[in-house]
Amino acid sequence: MRQAEQDPSEPERPLDIIAADDMRVQRYLMRAFLSSAGHRIRTANDGRTAFRMAVQSPPDLLITDLEMPGGGGFDLIYAIRNSCDERLCRISIIVCSSRSEIYTLNTALDYGANSFVTKPVHRNELYLAINNLRSLGTRDMG
Fold this sequence. Notes:
Blueprint: E1 16-20, H1 24-36, E2 40-44, H2 47-56, E3 61-64, H3 73-81, H4 86-89, E4 92-97, H5 102-111, E5 115-118, H6 123-135
Parallel strand pairs: 1-2, 1-3, 3-4, 4-5
């Protein structure tokens, strides 16, 4: 059900989220922020691991860093968006990166990301990005 159609007294369903980042502290923050909001979160320390997790059990949302050893965020976004698996193609993607120049933002969006937040990530900025995707009915998050 899209947010616009949802009964206001009915809470939004929790999302299943994969967060990929090579920095342990970033994974910890993502887990803390998102689980406190009621979401189910799985973490990966590189893009290849995140992709394997998504293939095994596709999430509603993928949050990824761009620069990670063992498969970066651009490779991960490309693999998700060009997968033959329809379930993967519907995953909403937020990039969370310290690289904030316009070229990087445009490249991430061109690859198929739906939103972009910069590090250090702030809880409210992350919630806003998620809620914006939900309000747009992006992929399976509505």
